[in-house]
Amino acid sequence: MESKFQKNINKLSDSSDNTANNGDFIKRDYDRSINMWNDVYSNCKIVDLKGKSLSVEPMFDICLDIFASKCKNILDFGCGTGDILFQCYEFGNTDSGLGVDLSEIGIEFAKKFASVNNYHNLDFQIGDISFFDNYNSNSFDGIILSNVLDVMPQDVALKTFRRLTDLLVPSGLMFVKLNPYYEKSDMKAWGFTQIKDNLFEENGVLRYRELDTASWKQSFEKHYEIIRYLEFPYPWQDGMNRLFLLQKKL
User: Fold this and answer.
1) pTM score, two decimals?
2) For domain 4-8+17-42+54-179+214-248, which architecture applies?
3) Were 20 and a residue from 13, 31, 117, 131 both cysteine, which residue would form a disulfide, CB within 3.0 to 4.6 Å?
4) What's the rounded Cα separation, in Å, for the pair 69 and 64?
């Protein structure tokens, strides 16, 4: 059965041939991205940490610690293999956590990893935003979105963000990690293909929706106070990753 996420992508196309073709490309590239991540996650190894701490990057870790210290019931939407939710759990304040992702391989890995490392009260499920159709508003006091909003078409990202905002309690926190912002000329020089507006694909896989930081801030501030904003590098990636810690307005 076609998910609501996929239906939303289909709606991006209109009666014009050019726009319809773009809509087809976006759906195709999105489907391929799921397959790509399944391939990536299939190479991950289950490890018994034996008391070792998980870490991403010092500034990332500090901001996540602040987030986790104030949140008891956390949703990680687009959780992949569950790494960030596991790190939250290790900070010691999490009562329960839910990770949702469209990659069945990622979810399978997360469940096994949680079992091996005795991470209790963490659940992992395959799904997109339609997974929450039967959830009530204010179901979570913390939501994680890491490299999610900036790999979706704009309309889909807006629908996803609005629904997640509805699921978050007033004054709840949202931890949003975004990829670096690149100029379109750089993207094309690196071999990415522009398929619609600021959407870029690589080898037929939807990879980025390029939006500058000021635009993200303007979008977030409609519903949130920006508690923290920071930038940090990854050794394997050009540019500065962007991280927002947001608090939902009353």
Assistant:
1) 0.87
2) 3-Layer(aba) Sandwich (3.40)
3) 13
4) 8
